[in-house]
Amino acid sequence: MRRSRLTKLGCSCILRNKKVILRVATIFCFCKMIILCFPAKIKSVDINNMDKTRKDLTSRSKDISQLVENARKAANCSAEVNRSYIVCDRLPFTKIICGNDGEQDNVYNEYIVPNEVHFIWFGEEFGISHFFQYLALRSIASIQQPNVIFIHHNVHGNKSNLIWDRIMKEIPCIKLVWRKEPTTIFGHDISTHTLRSDVARLRILLERGGIYADIDVITLKPLDDLRNYPATLGRSLSNKISNGFILAQPGASFIRDWLEQYRNYEEGGKPYAYWGVNIPMQLYVRRRSAHLEDTNINRPNPWADGFDSTSTAHYDITDNFVLHLHPDGFVGGEWDVGITEWDEWRLRRLDSVYGSAARIAMFGSQELVFFPSEESFGMSPKQRVRSFPSIDEE
């Protein structure tokens, strides 16, 4: 009797366990089916995600190519075979398509860096009034097609001028955001607009993420290849990194560590540029927690490649993501060629690195633009910038 009861009890436990196992197996299969049918958005960088990134970049490039083609048809343009210019009845401006009121875009949604752009203007007067600044805003709007372009500023009163009015008329995704200019960092006074802007951009990127650009940076091709790195910057000199163009995900450790370095800041101590260009290089060397572009973000530039390198020189920018003009590097000096006064009528056929960048911003292509009654000419040969020595070799 005892054996029989034990046997029955054992069989009962087995049956109960089988039921539990069957239930667990059923739940597991059901969950697996849900995961397969409704995959979660992947925000980490892996091979599959990078493949998606490349596909999306191709799609965005195709969209831009179509906009260029449409603009050329509307302007009745014809391209000369094997020549670096086109002949048009009027200027072939590309259509600007951007803006989703800050919402995550639904087509290119596999990135850790938000598709939003940040510019900063701190000063007593609103100074976005030059044509190269128009090109900076137009280029990133038309080429990157962000959800929103924030211009953080501290200027009260009237902002109207010919360039700003044109910007607000043509670019639909710009949002002015009043922002109090930071005057201290970790209890230390910061007195210059430049240093305050340096601090503000890091705080904005740490909180929101996105793409920060100085107002003299012209975008030349889509930036999506860089949007799956936690942070991206470009070298300006062999031992310096520029803070004039930064991509970062919200809460990026590189940006947080960079801000933390300001605990050591002292007013009147190291020059303000030290905190913007030397500190990020030091952090990169120690931790490698960011992606660093050698030549495609901040080259050419006046300090590494000559004071005419971003205006009248002939550099190849085909592979560049952006061109940082740095007009402060030559305006007012012997290399000042009047860059701040040039507009579309001069730039459409200016055979130089700045002319090429400007035409990409306006027309989507480097090619010179002539009218039928004008004598045409081709573009000059281009030189490539020399790469810096490897950081590990220095």
Strand residue percentage: 5-15%
For the biggest sheet, the summary is: 7 strands, mixed
Please state the oligomeric state of the protein chains shown.
single chain
The helix/strand series, from N terminus to C terminus, equals HHEEEHEHEEEHEEEEHHEHEHHE
Regions with little confidence, pLDDT below 50 for 5+ residues: 1-55
Q: Which class do the helix and strand fractions yield?
A: alpha/beta
Describe this structure in words.
The chain has 394 residues and is of the alpha/beta class. The chain has a domain of 264 residues: Spore Coat Polysaccharide Biosynthesis Protein SpsA, Chain A (Alpha-Beta Complex). Helices cover 37% and strands 15% of the residues. The chain has ten helices and 14 strands. It has a seven-stranded mixed beta sheet, with helices on both faces. It has a three-stranded mixed beta sheet with strand order 1-2-14. Helix 3 runs parallel beside helix 4. It is globular, with a radius of gyration of 27 Å. The chain starts with a helix and ends in a 24-residue tail after the last strand.
